């Protein structure tokens, strides 16, 4: 059963997102109004070192008033290559420039409300370039043993679904 987006009108927009009101036709022919949040893509990256440790950021999210471990991430600028954006965000937020990035996964974290796509990458090596430019993004940056990731997620230490999915995929790829 497919819903059809007949039309959308913009309700609000800024540099970061647009809120549209969609006229949606349901399979039975009836219509409903549905708000849609349109977002630019998000790119995230991390490095897993030779000791199977993953570089993560410990940060507070004021919207949910929660603390958790995350990969460095940010929006993809207009016209920017997604992998390049992931590498840029990682260096700005951690002070580490990743080696060649490998696609890890792409997720749609809230596809019932927004068209956001999060593209997550990883590298097997990185180079420390100095203190992070965007140190305000996190309280600390640490190399965490990948073997600890499933238990950390179970304890709620990785509250963001996109980050949990990426870290579980890394755990699977590296440790089986």
From TrEMBL:
Domain Nudix hydrolase: 38-171
Cofactor list: Mg(2+)
Keywords: Hydrolase
Gene3D superfamilies in the cross-refs: Nucleoside Triphosphate Pyrophosphohydrolase (3.90.79.10)
This protein's record includes keyword Hydrolase: yes
Alphabetized PANTHER family for the sequence: NUDIX HYDROLASE DOMAIN-CONTAINING PROTEIN (PTHR11839:SF18), UDP/ADP-SUGAR PYROPHOSPHATASE (PTHR11839)
Protein name in UniProt: NUDIX domain-containing protein
Provenance organism: Streptomyces cyaneofuscatus
